[in-house]
Amino acid sequence: MTTRDTQHRTDQDTRVTQNTEAVWNTETEKVLTKLKEYALGPMRFMNLLSCFELGIVDVLRAEGPRTAVEIAERVGGAPAAIEQLLLLPVKDEFLSQDERGRYELAGLAHPSAADLGRVLPWMDMIKVICLRQLYWLTDSVRTGTVVGLKELYGHEGTLYSATAANDDLRASWSAMMDSVTDYIDGWFFANLQVRPGARILDLAGNTGLGAVLTRKYKAEADPAVVCFDFPEKEAAALATFAAHGESERCGFIGGDVFDGVPEGFDLVLIKHFLDMFDKDNVLRILRNVHAALEPGGEVCVLVPSHPEHLADTSSVDFFPAYFLGCTMGEGGPQKVSTYAAWAREAGFEVTTAISQDVASMPPDMVPMHGIIVGRKN
Amino acid sequence: MTTRDTQHRTDQDTRVTQNTEAVWNTETEKVLTKLKEYALGPMRFMNLLSCFELGIVDVLRAEGPRTAVEIAERVGGAPAAIEQLLLLPVKDEFLSQDERGRYELAGLAHPSAADLGRVLPWMDMIKVICLRQLYWLTDSVRTGTVVGLKELYGHEGTLYSATAANDDLRASWSAMMDSVTDYIDGWFFANLQVRPGARILDLAGNTGLGAVLTRKYKAEADPAVVCFDFPEKEAAALATFAAHGESERCGFIGGDVFDGVPEGFDLVLIKHFLDMFDKDNVLRILRNVHAALEPGGEVCVLVPSHPEHLADTSSVDFFPAYFLGCTMGEGGPQKVSTYAAWAREAGFEVTTAISQDVASMPPDMVPMHGIIVGRKN
Q: Do B48 and A38 lie within an 8 Å CB cutoff?
């Protein structure tokens, strides 16, 4: 290298140093770091989920430490690809790697089968219902429609109507909902007061399972429970009742909640439903319920809700994008205090407005539920 | 409520409490919390990016505090949807909301235009090149092909061939690469020693910009630089040289690096290329370079690389999923020590093996680059 070259190189070093060692103040550094974390979210998610999908976690659990070559023989793919895929789970201590290059379960050895039985359906749902659809989130917000469902499935409508014709959506969504419902029903019914012989309407009760569960959880009150939903759900609902031996005390009424709610009930349950709608539609529903009740009649709402202090759960990390971009093109949970205010606006006296205790929820659980009970006076 | 009902309810409370207040030990809690963070990654990513895409950040920056109704008037969408979308950025302090419900920039007021000029092309690339494609990561690992490109674009091949026919992929990928190249070239050329009058081959030099930049950064050495790439790139490369007034000292040779490397050069540059391949192909490339050099000739590799200690950067959070599921169906960076070992395996004496200083990188920057220089003796 000549002297001229040396000189040139030194000049450049200085410039480069000034360029790349620019100082970011603490606030800026914090924000830029957070933006990086956001950007990496989709990559981390699918990298980890693929380790489960490929069966790598199962192989390591069942067979003990294995090299990338041994794993590739069992699950497919090139050993070099397996090595790349396992870098992140090793870095984040889900797995570990010994000095001979063999992988084994580390953090992933801890969750129970029941824990993973909650987590994996949830991750699969985010993959199937959200990951690709989110690409069109901006268009969905602009149009108030789920653009991703149209682009990917040719479906114009909501996720709930799309599940009818698309097995992959239905299977993934149902597995997640079953897991959430299993978890939340105990809490809901423990907080639900039912008078003996009460006449209960399960509003938007789908194909009747909620009615059956109400009978099961409130067996000593022996309530009569009617499932109210679109008329096309009737056959499936009646089959559900028959299958559970509940045909006598369960029934079905077909209709649309936005047109009106059947009369003659002491208690109307609205479970997992109001969060699908914006305020206008929530008020229409609550007012229709209010109009259908006799004085003394009650509505009991179970709904995923944002915490009063947003940072207390990950609710807002999930639901807005889920409802706007993946399921409804509108809606999203409100705070329990907001739902209570809306119930009052619809004419109810609010007698209960409670949230789950976050400390009692599994650490992986995102939806925090609230219960709002309103009485018509 | 009757006594029987009360009794029933109390029994249930106990059961429910036992059910929902199950205790997770610290290790399990840590892992389940981490799994939740992973699962939320895609949701957070697109929620935040949509705030930029819709122009909400620009409106707040230009016009000051605005309500959801005012924002919706400017950017489209329903005010209720804007409210939901802004819950997360408020929670995470990118934005704030005052007592009148008006949103304004909080954390997002700090990054400079130059900062956002790095971050936003990066986020757009993750959306366009990765978000949907990742859905097929597991299949991509199994088959060693980019299944997402086939499913979404009907393309059988790599991202690099897909960009030719798909403007959206090309635009997003190029904007990100331009940003990374702008950032890294100063560092690379500051660490590159070029003898006066050196004959340089820019291997896989695409359409010649790298050759022009080599001339610019090493102007005092006045090297002759030849771009080597597929023959179909020749016309574009010659146009690049002409546009920069470099037709005299820049040239083009068409060929395939896997078939052989042109002889007659003092220095071969391999920039942003080896990370696309697994070991076998990296060795084929390096051996072909070695065969083409005279004794004393050098190869200089610039390559994104994983840090020796995986947790030192977010490299492994990004690259494996990117290469396996979104771009190549194989490949992915190695540690600098691994590239150095492979260079030795190909016959080189390794004279330089360095990594960027992480502390000098912008806080949002993911790729950490390494330089490996090998000499043929």
A: yes
